Fold:
Amino acid sequence: MKLKTTSKTPLASRTETTHIVQPQDINPIGTIFGGTVMAWIDLAAAACANRHTRKVCVTASMDELHFLSPIHLGEIVILKANVNYTHRTSLEVGVRVESEDPFTGERRHTASAYLTFVALDKKGSPTPVPPVLPQTAQEKMWFEEARVRRIARLSSKGRRRTSKGNV
Ligand SMILES: CC(C)(COP(=O)(O)OP(=O)(O)OC[C@H]1O[C@@H](n2cnc3c(N)ncnc32)[C@H](O)[C@@H]1OP(=O)(O)O)[C@@H](O)C(=O)NCCC(=O)NCCS
Structure:
């Protein structure tokens, strides 16, 4: 298939970042602060969004995040970010977080997150992003799942705006 000149494959912007958990990253029971992992997720996803759009991108939302297993001092943390879906000015980036035992190499899935970024022009207004063209069966599945998530996410945003609750 011939790609449109402005479109990009997910592979072109796929991003992997690696950290070693330092003493300042851990809580009193020796496991990493959730907020540190969240910041690393945001940074990996932002790099991926920047590579795809080559524009300034801001985080519009991060979907619910579950920490599946603890990460300990000295472990290696690997974050893999992928552009799952693009709409007009926004794109969804999925991030998978794994921890690696530095001595055995054993890896565990720690968390997965979906973030939506919006590309901004020089005046700070939302601006179109290049369409992502999934190539593999897995990328096509991620694209379709992200399309469905976008609908649910925007409907949830609408409900929050009209809610009189305390959050
Ligand atoms: C994100 C932001 C630019 C959107 O501005 P806006 O005036 O709502 O823009 P629009 O209504 O024109 O929507 C622009 C795009 O953002 C998407 N969007 C807006 N809010 C969203 C949300 N909460 N979650 C997901 N996507 C969202 C819209 O669906 C639209 O996407 P599309 O063009 O691909 O269809 C604006 O809310 C903002 O600047 N937020 C603060 C971002 C920030 O500072 N982040 C860092 C942490 S505080």
